[in-house]
Structures are given as C-alpha cells and as structure tokens.
C-alpha cells in the first residue's frame, strides 16, 4: 500500500529513525545517510511567554517615585538635600603713619605783617598693605578715627605767642571724610582745597592745623592699586599757596620770619571698603552628594538605549548673607554623568545663578531646565519668586548608552562675584551661604530623530540537541504582542548557536504598535542557520510623534510564540 506523509511528518519521522536500526544487520556497505527537506516545519520547542520586564521595579530605597504629572501617574527621578559654605570673612588692612620732610617757609615782613614769599610744595606718601586677595579694587575705605596734621614751626625766628596766620590757602590730600577741623576751616574733598581763616602760634612757636577723618575716597586721592604686591599707595601733593602773618596786640614781628612746614598723617586702620569683591565660596557643605542611579532598572541599561528627557529640572534655593553690602552671590552649575565604562560627560547651564541684594535675608529660588516649568509642576517649596536659568543640555544627562550609575551636581566657581560692594565690613565673620536643592526629572521621553530610544533583549536558549542538526534556510517567528507602553517599537529575532553566539544572518523585523493588544507579528531570519540553540529577542522602542511619559505597570509581553523553519535535516539511518 502506498503511504502518504504530510510535509511536516518526514523530518519528525527522521528524528525517530535514529533509534530503529537493528544492530544485527551489516550496514557497512550500505549508505545509511539521508537528507530530508522540510518547509514551514513548526519546531518542537516550547517557549514560555516573553515578558520584556516592567519598565521600573520600585523599591523603598529607589529615587524613582510615582508622581502625578498632567493628571497622569508617571515615574520621576527625585533627589533633594541641603548645601552651605564656610563662613565668609575678608581681613582688615591698614596704613602706617607717614610724614613729609620739613620744607622752608619764608615770609617778607613789614609794618607788623608778613606775606608768604613763594608757595611751598611737598609730597605725602602712605600705603595700605596686606590687602586680602578677595578685594579686586577699592574706591573708598572706612577707618577708625585718624588725622592729618599741617604743622608750621616758626620757633627759630622767635615769633611771639599769639602771632596769627590769616587767609591760609592750601591744597592737601583730597578724598578725606572729615569728622572735625578747626573753626573757620573749610575743606573741599573733591580737590583737597583747604581755606583757614586764621591760626595762632603757640608758646612753642608752632601752628598745628588738624583734620580728623574716618574715611578716604581713594579715587579722589588718586591712589594706585598694585595687585601683585597687594598694596594701595597714595601720593598726594601738599601745597601752601597763600598766608599772611600778623603780630599779636602789643608785639612786633621779627624782621625776618623763617619757618618750616611738614605734614603728618596717622595710622589708618581700615574697617570697611567699597569697591569690587571676588570672594570664592568654599567648604564641604557645597559638595552635593551624587545622585545615585545604580539601582536603575536593567531595562534601561542595554547597549543602544539612549534616554533623552524632555524637561528634567534642578531646583535650587540660596540666600545671600552679604545683602547689606550690596554684594551678589553668583555660581555656575554643572552636572556630570558617571558611566560604568569609566567615562564621564559634563553638562553645564548656559546662565549663572545670581542671588542679588534686593531680597535682604530671604532666599532666591531657581529652576535650571531646558524649558521653564509652570504652575503645579513646580514643587511647592520653590514657587515663590522663582527664576528660570537656561540649562538645555540637562535633557541629555541620562543619554549616551547605558544609564550612568551616578550624577554629580556641582556649583561651579561659587563666589561673591566682581560686583560693586558698599561699606563691606572687614574682619567681620559673615555666615556662609545656605540653601537647598531638588532634582526633579519626569521620565518623559523626547521624540524626533534625536529623541529617546530604549532597547531590550532577552535570550531563549537550551533547545533540543536534535534541532542543532538542522540546516535552516529561514526562520519565521510569530507571536502575539500585548503592550501597556505608550511607545511604538520594532521587534527583531536573531538565531543563537550552542555557544551562545548570535548568527550573522539577514533579519526582517516587525513594527509593534504603542499599547498593542493581541497584535500578531511575524519576524524572519534568513541565511545559513546551523547548530541552532535558541532565539535572541530585541525590542527597539521609540516615542512616536509625541513626547511620552513612562508610568507604572508598563511592559511588553510576547505570547503564543511559534517558530517555523525551512531547510534540511541530515541523519544516519
């Protein structure tokens, strides 16, 4: 009777023939090899449902939280903490007392009076040293009570006590903030012009004209700042331009009046300054602990995965302990992604954090992000007086392959910056800056050609050894897809040999719809496929035309997997 076989039966029967040869037969002269061709053979392997993992598997220590974004539950990477700097102090500085040499002053006297024969000029020099490096420039300095004295000595000429000098016209050091001076004395701080109605010689034959001051305008005094030696030097001309000597009642003037003049200035101990300050803020409190991502789901760790977030946000709140001096606290901000391969990637904000003086002792709130968040998306603690700082590259902080194991947040060169300060107290210990930060990164994936891509793959290996004897021309893998992820994807399947290596064959994948439900897909692999021991499934998931947010319970499942093969089976009968 003629037997009929189905097209699937021959290979399956061949599997059984290997155990049906009678050992009593001499087959040495008989060709017992046989090659059987099969088409659309359903391979006798059972593949359980392939679940492409939950997107995120939360635990109590996870910094990924479930929050409500735009009315929907979404995953958000969060981290928060506090920061502070060391106390702020700029040291005092001072100038030692100085004096000019004695210069001759001659009067021509006649009829009981004498006039200054010629103007007298001398140079008064004094320097401030050991100036704190935080001081970039100084326009004015406040100081403890100090004095500048003009001394005229006519004792050698025997000028009687009570002899007066009247109509004294002088130029002295400009820029002094005078607290007291003799009655009838006028001083112009802009030019140093000083007029004295009269002054009387004492019993020692001297006149002393004292000017008491508590500040110096260094600009008006034409001071020179030397950054290399950290000194400020004042060289001022002292001029006696006019004066008349009159005898006291009942006395006569000497026929010749030869006097001498000198100028003394006391120590100047500076207590505050106005100018430019560049004070670097320091301290371990500014070292923000890394945002630890080593718990991040392996789902996001496959080669080729590239997470680009739409609008991650770094919130910061900082105070300004120097607000009364009109100082401004400024800092750059950068985030550094630390990757498993030992490389790092640094992302910097385009703009600076700038905490001005208008807030007095309140804190200024900032959000650093690609786009300015609005309304309820902003954490409540940061909503008041929120200032946006552009940080476009922050969307790439998770990008570039496997998700980094940690992210460093750094204040870059924080300082009381080169801005004009007024009456900045020296030697005073100010408290350091204090503040808080919060990293808030919704897992909203960026769309477009340069957008996000998630790759997931899993092996299904350890098949029956007999299948390894097949020489397969093409494989067809069919499955039903169930997805709760709002992202479309592309599914491919690659044959795996008994050594676990992927075979170099032609692959044709299948498009998987976003939120697919019972979507039947077929993927193929064609070429020379031998030693088959399994299938490697890869899903490439990308946002479509919209930005999509990942939330709880999102996963892809492949069910009812069937594998059909075309090829040949060779065995010994």
Please tell me about this protein's structure.
It is a single chain. By secondary structure, the chain is an all-beta fold. It has 3 domains: 38-56 and 451-572, Jelly Rolls (Sandwich), CATH 2.60.120; 64-88 and 281-442, no CATH class; 94-275, no CATH class. It has one helix spanning 9-17; strands at 33-42, 50-51, 64-69, 72-84, 94-95, 98-99, 103-110, 113-116, 120-129, 135-153, 164-171, 176-180, 185-188, 193-200, 206-217, 224-226, 231-246, 256-265, 268-280, 291-292, 313-318, 329-338, 344-348, 353-355, 364-369, 386-390, 406-425, 434-442, 444-445, 454-461, 470-483, 488-497, 506-508, 510-512, 517-529, 532-542, 548-549, 556-572. The strands form 5 sheets. An 8-stranded antiparallel barrel has the order 5-9-17-8-7-18-10-19. Strands 1, 2, 31, 33, 35 and 38 form a 6-stranded antiparallel β-sheet that branches. Strand 3 and strand 4 (72-84) form a beta hairpin.
Key terms for this structure?
573 residues; mainly beta; Jelly Rolls; 3 domains; 1 helix; 38 strands; disordered N terminus
Query: Outline, from the CA principal axes?
Result: rod-shaped
Largest pleated sheet: 8 strands, antiparallel, barrel
Question: What count of structural domains?
Answer: 3
How many whole angstroms does the radius of gyration measure?
Answer: 45 Å
Number of helices: 1
Placed side by side, the strands forming the largest sheet appear as 5-9-17-8-7-18-10-19
SS-based class: mainly beta
> What fraction of the residues are assigned to beta strands by DSSP?
over 45%
| Spatial gap, N to C terminus | 22 Å
Model regions low in confidence, pLDDT < 50 over at least 5 residues: 1-32
Mean pLDDT: 84
**Total number of β-strand segments?**
38
- Share in helix: under 10%
């Amino acid at each position: 009777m003629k037997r009929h076989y189905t097209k699937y039966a021959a290979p399956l029967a061949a599997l059984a023939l290997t155990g049906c040869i009678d050992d009593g037969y001499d087959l040495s002269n008989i060709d017992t090899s046989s090659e059987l061709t099969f088409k659309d053979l359903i391979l006798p392997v059972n593949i359980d449902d392939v679940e492409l993992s939950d997107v995120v598997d939360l635990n109590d220590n996870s910094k990924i939280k479930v929050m409500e974004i735009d009315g929907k539950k979404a995953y958000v990477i969060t981290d928060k903490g506090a920061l502070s700097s060391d106390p702020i102090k700029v040291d005092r500085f001072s100038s030692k007392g100085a004096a000019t040499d004695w210069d001759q002053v001659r009067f021509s006297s006649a009829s009981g009076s004498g006039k200054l024969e010629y103007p007298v000029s001398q140079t008064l020099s004094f320097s401030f040293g050991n100036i704190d490096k935080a001081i970039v420039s100084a326009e004015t300095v406040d100081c403890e009570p100090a004095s500048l004295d003009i001394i005229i000595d006519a004792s050698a000429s025997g000028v009687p006590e009570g002899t007066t000098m009247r109509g004294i016209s002088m130029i002295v050091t400009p820029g002094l903030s005078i607290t007291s001076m003799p009655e009838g004395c006028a001083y112009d701080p802009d030019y140093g012009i000083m007029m004295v109605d009269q002054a009387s010689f004492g019993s020692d034959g001297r006149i002393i004209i004292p000017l008491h001051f508590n500040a110096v305008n260094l600009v008006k005094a034409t001071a020179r700042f030397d950054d290399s030696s950290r000194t400020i030097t004042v060289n001022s001309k002292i001029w006696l331009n006019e004066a008349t000597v009159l005898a006291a009642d009942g006395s006569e003037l000497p026929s010749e009046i030869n006097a001498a003049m000198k100028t003394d200035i006391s120590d100047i101990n500076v207590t505050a300054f106005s100018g430019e300050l560049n004070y670097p803020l320091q301290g371990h409190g500014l070292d923000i602990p890394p945002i630890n991502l080593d718990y991040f789901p392996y789902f996001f760790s496959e080669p080729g995965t590239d997470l680009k977030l739409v609008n991650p946000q770094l919130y910061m709140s900082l105070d300004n302990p120097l607000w009364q001096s009109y100082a401004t606290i400024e800092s750059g901000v950068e985030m550094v992604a630390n990757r498993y391969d030992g490389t790092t990637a640094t992302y910097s904000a385009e703009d600076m954090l700038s905490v001005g003086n208008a807030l007095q002792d309140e804190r200024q709130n900032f959000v650093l992000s690609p786009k300015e968040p609005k309304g309820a998306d902003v954490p409540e603690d940061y909503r008041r007086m929120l200032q946006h700082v552009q940080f476009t590259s922050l969307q790439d902080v998770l990008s570039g392959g496997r998700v980094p194991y940690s992210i460093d947040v750094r204040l870059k060169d924080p300082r009381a910056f080169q801005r004009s300060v007024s009456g900045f107290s020296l030697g005073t210990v100010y408290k350091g800056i204090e503040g808080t930060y919060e990293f808030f990164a919704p897992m909203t994936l960026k769309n477009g050609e340069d957008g996000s891509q998630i790759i997931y793959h899993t092996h299904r290996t350890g098949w029956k050894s007999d299948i390894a004897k097949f020489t397969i021309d093409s494989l067809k893998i069919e499955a039903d897809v169930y997805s709760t992820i709002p992202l479309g994807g592309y599914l491919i399947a690659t044959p795996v040999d008994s050594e676990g290596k992927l075979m170099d064959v032609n692959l044709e994948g299948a498009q998987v719809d976003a939120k697919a439900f019972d979507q039947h897909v077929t993927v193929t692999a064609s070429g020379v496929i031998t030693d088959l021991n399994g299938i490697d499934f890869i899903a490439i998931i990308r946002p479509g035309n919209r930005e999509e947010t990942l939330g709880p319970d999102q996963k892809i499942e492949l069910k009812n997997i069937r594998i059909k093969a075309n090829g040949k089976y060779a065995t010994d009968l």
